[in-house]
Amino acid sequence: MTSNTSASPVCGDSKKDMKYLLVSGGVISGVGKGVITSSIGTLLKSVGLKVTAIKIDPYLNIDAGTFSPYEHGEVFVLDDGGEVDLDLGNYERFLDVTLHRDNNITTGKIYQHVIQKERKGDYLGKTVQVVPHVTDAIQEWVQRVARIPVGKNDETPDICVIELGGTIGDIEGMPFVEAFRQFQFRVGHQNFTNIHVSLVPQPSSTGEQKTKPTQNSVRQLRGLGLSPDVIVCRSKNPVSDSVKEKVSNFCHVPPDQVLGVQDCSSIYRVPLLLEQQGILQFLVKRLAISPPSPQPKITLHQWKNLADRYDSHSKEVRIVLVGKYTKLEDAYTSVIKALKHASLLCRHRLVLACVEADDLEGDSLQKNPPKYFEAWKLLSEAQGLIVPGGFGTRGTEGMVVAAKFARERKLPFLGVCLGMQIAVIEFARNVLGLKDANSTEFDPSTTNPVVIEMPEHNPGQMGATMRLGKRKTLFKTNDSLLKKLYQFGSTSDYKFVEERHRHRYEINPNMITEIEKKGMIFVGHSTDNKRMEIMELKDHPYYVGVQYHPEYLTRPITPSAPYLGLILASSGKLSRFLTRGCQLSPHTSYDYNPDDELDDEVTQAFSRFGNLGLKESEADSVFIEKTD
């Protein structure tokens, strides 16, 4: 890796340098740095700046690929196959960008890089130390990655927003703090700013917001050589002016640079909350930026509409998620986001119940009857069911009985990755009569292996060896429900879709003919026709499985097609949507009146998709509510 220190154009001016914004955190982890980082990037993008983002995780793992979901939340997968921290999913969804594996820096990556250089003799016999060799490697990595295009137009970013994971004072993060202490002088004062996010607790015993943890956190940060320009106070309730003044006095930051971000009804309100407190104007002035648009463009207005719609929906859609890691919501972050995005577009409030798959199994009735009956009660009340990805044997029999319940009761069902494999196992057992049908992952000795390992993706080590990243899925028939959902509103014929994968097992191609004879059709294949990518069940309102992870590419205003189909079917809108040919143009389907409130929203929706370079079709479902 080499350092690229040449000036990067900002706003079309080649004389201006790359700008860097570091977001650090204090008091506790999980304080909301990821959402605040994403929100700040959204605000900068709203004035026409090109924004990229970097997440720093100070653990020794090379990447997040071998983490248990209970350890660090879900593993997010990028186009290039990088297995990264879930915060990069937030960045992509908020900023509508495509990041790369190097946008996630870990201590393991840095040390691996430094040691490889030492082995090659790049340090010319010097003693390799944390300072300067590790800290230099961090700075060079940031400068290199900050200039990699991440937008649709392949343009060099103007500003790089960097989130430093963990909490200030953690021993793991010390090399990174030292690196940025040096970095602020390396790039210059006008090109670097630090925003510190800190918790302001409010003990129930007194009801008073306490600033002492924030004071200590900032004192520690300043002692390490970084002085925050902005302090963001995270709290349950709005931070009072007196608390802001106290933080200002004790932390050497002007009062107008102490911001409050309280718990909001949705994360869509966070950019609006920060913008109202003037952070955008401060950053433009502090970093000496001349943005193309002095005032936030329509994108920020769209965020307000999004937040208002999220808060105003009264209709509910009840979805049950049957999974293996339901005790930690972060384990299914992207799945939950995809469900929320689809529900929002269909003008419904998502009511999600997470059921631990173990609780649906027969053994649970003996071990814990209350949990067993509660799990089945939730399943019986569901309007739709999703079985997401996972690994290992635990809970799989519970997933099988859930898939059987959805198939027999005509309950809308979406199986993702493992969920699709589970649906095929259940179908083979109960429709084909192959009672021991199973995956070789769960039962290596099964005589009917309907799911088998891909040997080329198990070379003897676990990390980064699965079938990863964006790949094409070819539609094998025009009579496909999912194909229609992917191309809704478009006049072009979609021959394929591209989605991100993360799996080591696949449907056994030798059993496809037998399965399809009974009505379970594999309508999407890999480009070599060897791997089954999309499954649809005949004579069912919505029983779909996908081998890929469509939730990785969902966006707040452009939800994933398989998830949109699940919500449409669960809310009773899918058949009407399909009857109209999935094309609901205001100029052909309705009398268009620009003065009408709903039609005005439709106009904004079409404008929104045009501005973001997205298909016009994604705006269509704003009409669904009008046709009910």
Chain-wise SSE layout:
Layout: E1 19-26, H1 33-46, E2 51-57, H2 69-72, E3 76-77, E4 83-84, H3 87-95, E5 104-106, H4 107-120, H5 130-146, E6 159-164, H6 174-187, E7 192-199, H7 212-223, E8 230-235, H8 241-251, E9 258-262, H9 270-276, H10 279-286, H11 298-312, E10 316-323, H12 333-345, E11 349-356, H13 362-367, H14 369-381, E12 384-387, H15 396-408, E13 413-416, H16 418-430, E14 438-439, E15 449-453, E16 467-475, H17 481-486, E17 496-503, E18 505-507, H18 512-517, E19 520-526, E20 532-537, E21 543-546, H19 561-570, H20 574-579, H21 597-611
Parallel strand pairs: 1-6, 1-7, 2-5, 2-6, 7-8, 8-9, 10-11, 10-12, 12-13, 13-21, 14-15
Antiparallel strand pairs: 3-4, 15-18, 16-17, 16-19, 19-20, 20-21
Which class of secondary structure composition applies to the elements? alpha/beta
Alpha-carbon distance between the termini?
57 Å
CATH superfamily of the largest domain: P-loop containing nucleotide triphosphate hydrolases
Tally of discrete structural domains? 3
State the strand order across the main sheet.
11-10-12-13-21-20-19-16-17
How would you sum up the major sheet?
Answer: 9 strands, mixed
The average pLDDT value, as a whole number, equals 86
Number of helices: 21
The quaternary state of the protein chains shown equals single chain
Poorly predicted ranges:
1-15, 583-628
User: Strand fraction band?
Assistant: 15-25%
* Helical content class: 25-40%
Q: What Rg, in angstroms, do the CA atoms define?
A: 25 Å
Q: Count the E strands.
A: 21
Supply the CATH architecture of the largest domain: 3-Layer(aba) Sandwich
Q: What is the CATH T-level topology of the largest domain? A: Rossmann fold
Broad shape: globular
